[in-house]
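ok so i was messing around last nite and threw this chain in just to see what happens. nothing serious, just curious
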Amino acid sequence: MSDIYTVIDTIRLTEKASMLQEQNNEYVFKVDRKSNKLQIKEAIQKHFGVTVTQVRTANCHGKQKRRRRADAGRTAHWKKAVVRLKEGDTIDLA
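result:
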């Protein structure tokens, strides 16, 4: 994973993510499932120009889905990264 654009997929804008951003200066990202904490830290520091102090990751499993049929499908598995920034650093989401 040498390219930072393959590591970071999207930023997650949820109520919990907004609360973490306001209280702890943490941002939630959807990242590539194969990336590790060091790659995530490096990609965010290069892309946004901030200093990352901590990275927490979680593998989120896809949900079972049925659409009026007998066979069930599944949404994709994905990986979530909660990134804490240095005091005073922010990421502009606008």
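not much to say yet. The chain has one domain: 4-85.
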